[in-house]
Amino acid sequence: MKRVIEKKSVAKLNLFLAVLGKRSDIYHDILSLVARVRFGDNLRMELVPGGEDKIECDVCGVPLGEENLIMKAIGEVRKRVKFREGVRVILDKKIPMGAGLGGGSSNGVATLVGLNELLGKVLREEELRTIAKSMGSDCLFFLEEGVKVIRGRGDEVERVGIGIEERISGKRIIIFKPQYSIATAWAYGEMAKRPELYIKQRDAEVALDVGLGRLLKGEGLEGLLYNNFEYVIFEKYPELKKLMKELYEEFHVKGLLSGSGSACFVLMNLESDSEGIKRKIKEVLGEEIFMIETEME
Fold this sequence. Notes:
The chain has helices spanning 69-80, 103-118, 125-135, 139-142, 162-168, 184-193, 201-216, 230-236, 238-251, 274-285, and strands spanning 4-22, 28-48, 54-56, 86-92, 148-151, 156-159, 172-177, 226-227, 255-257, 264-267, 290-295. The protein is of the alpha+beta class. A hairpin with a 4-residue loop joins strand 5 and strand 6.
C-alpha cells in the first residue's frame, strides 16, 4: 500500500449558468455548463502511522478544521473504511477563495480520490459518487473529467458529447478576481429577493441547447456565455460591469462572471492582445488583484 500520493485539484468555470428558482429545501435549482481549467491547487497526501488527520497550508485564511471539505472527505472515507493511520494533507493553494471557481469542492474531491488510492481503491466508483454528492453541490462535477451539464442543486451531472468538448478544450482564457470575495449564500439570497431574475427551466434548456448547437456548427463559444447572477453582482459591484463593457469595446473579447463570483474570465482568440487586456483589468480593478492566463481542459 502506498504511503504518499500527489493530486492536482483543478478550478472550474461556469460557461453558462441559469439560476432557475428556489427549491423546497435551502438550495436553488440551476442549469449550468461547466468546464475544468488547466490551473489549480496541488495536494500531497500521506498516511502517518499513529498520526492525526490534519491539513497544512501556508495561505492565510484557508480553514484547517472540519469546515474544510478536505477534512469532510477524510471523515466520509473513515465511516466506510477502517484504517489506523492519520491522514496528513499538504495543500499548495493557488485557486483564490470566495471566487466561484470551485476550489474548496475540488480540494475535497481530490482528497477523496487520493485517499481511496492510498488505501488500495477499496471504495467502488458508485460509493465515491455517493460521497461526493453528499459533500456539496459542486463536488460530483469534479469526480470525473470532461465538460458537463449540471442540473438540480448541482448534483445531477451529465457529460456532453466529444464534439462539444473538442470545441471547448484548449480555449485560452484570462481569469481574474478582485480583491473582494462574494459569499455564495449572499448571492443566492439576493436572487431570492428578486424572483423576476430567475429563468424558467424550459427557457434555460432551450437557450443552452441552441448555444451548444451553434458551437457544434463552428460558431464561437462567446454566444453561449450567460450568467443571471450578473444582475445582482454587477449591481453591487458596478466596476465589474464597466470592465466587461470596456473589454468588449476596446479588445472585442467577451467576459463573464464565473458562478456567483467574484472571479470573472475573458475568452481569448489568436488575435487577442493579452497584455493589453491584463493592463485594462488592472487599470479598473487595481494592481493587487489575482489574475492568470490559462486554458480550458
